[in-house]
Amino acid sequence: MIRVVLPAHLRALARVHGEVALDVDGTVTQRTVLDALEAAYPALRGTTRDQVTQQRRSFVRFYASGEDLSHSSPDDPLPDAVVAGTEPYLIIGAMAGG
Amino acid sequence: MSGVRVLVGTKKGAFVLTSDEARERWDIEGPLFAGWEMYHLKGSPVDPDRLYASQSGGWFGQLIQRSDDGGKSWEAVGNRFEYEGDPGTHQHYDGTPRPWEFTRVWHLEPSLTDPDTVYAGVEDAGLFRSGDGGQTWQELSGLRQQQGSAWQPGAGGLCLHTILLHPTDPARITVAISAAGVFRTDDAGKTWRPVNRGLRSEGIPDTGAEVGHCVHNLTMHPSRPDTIFMQKHWDVMRSDDGAESWTEISGNLPTDFGFPIAVHAHEPDTIYVVPITSDYLHVPVDGKLRVYRSRTGGNEWEPLTTGLPQEHCYVNVLRDAFAVDSLDECGLYFGTTGGQVYASADSGDSWAPIVRDLPAVLSVEVQTLP
Fold it and tell me: Whole-prediction pTM value?
């Protein structure tokens, strides 16, 4: 199972508490994880990436294993620890304000 | 016993205010969708339990929420707003071409006859329709063919903010866009044409141009659908031929700049505006919050001040933040950027706040309940 940590607003939208666990078919990449997330929680469609362009929203960041993967290819394999479920994939609402 | 349900969208969530027909004691529920910008909430005229809400934010984009039980519970429905074809470019503030890009839904207008049909006015300006309760959306793209490449954003963005559905002719829809003007279809959205004859705007090169006018809001009484009232950037206007031509009715207003305009539920010639000092001073004149009423369809206006702050008041009332109920004694409601929602149960003669300290109010709609 792939563990995903959502920011508070998206947990409220998905009506979940804490992490979510996802089954991901095939190679575990950012794209396949987000596809599985949106399939399991349709309310999250379009919240982390534009539905038409698939571009990551500017104020959303993706972290895993201490790395910022926001600018990595969405089709790169995720780290082994995320695939093994020992570490979560983190979706972050970027800090912005004053 | 009849009553009202006031749907309030704010910069940090939505609130539902309910009362009986006396409109003296209020139950306040919220915030719903706390932390999100709730640009607009509106109920179906044929099923008051069916509500639609526009939920958006800078982090996570646009969502559409739907309730089938009068706002007790909500479900996120479709939020894929895809322009038809290659939308090309419009003009940016500096006049350079800018690719069309969906940002948010400003206004939701449920059908007058079918609770599953709803229209969405969006930024960058476009009109979308859903026939399945908001699950899927299709653009009525013929609108953008009306010189869309020349449209320029108003200060709030290039937004389609007003949708008037004709009460007896379902093929006629009239919309307003800042800062492009008014457009009308007579074939249910296939083809459109600009209907701005008589508008004059000092801020554009051709003051009487066919498109390019910063129309802020339109309203219409359902018994007289050919009479449409307009609050423009500057100027309050009136059309008596379904928007084909416009004449100014600013009359004795202290300033004719403002955002909302509303019409009384039972008196088609009684209209309301909230004059704002100017385009660079979005505050009431002299710090006095005054609604102005005309009982003559314009030109002759009277200030309504009882119960409204008459000193040190520097809030604004946005275009979708004024609503009218249809109880026997017509009720009026408006919200401010200072978080107050004021109500009048006597056609505007006197006012009282329902709440004073909400987040900045973006929209106010009211449902008259059986």
Answer: 0.97
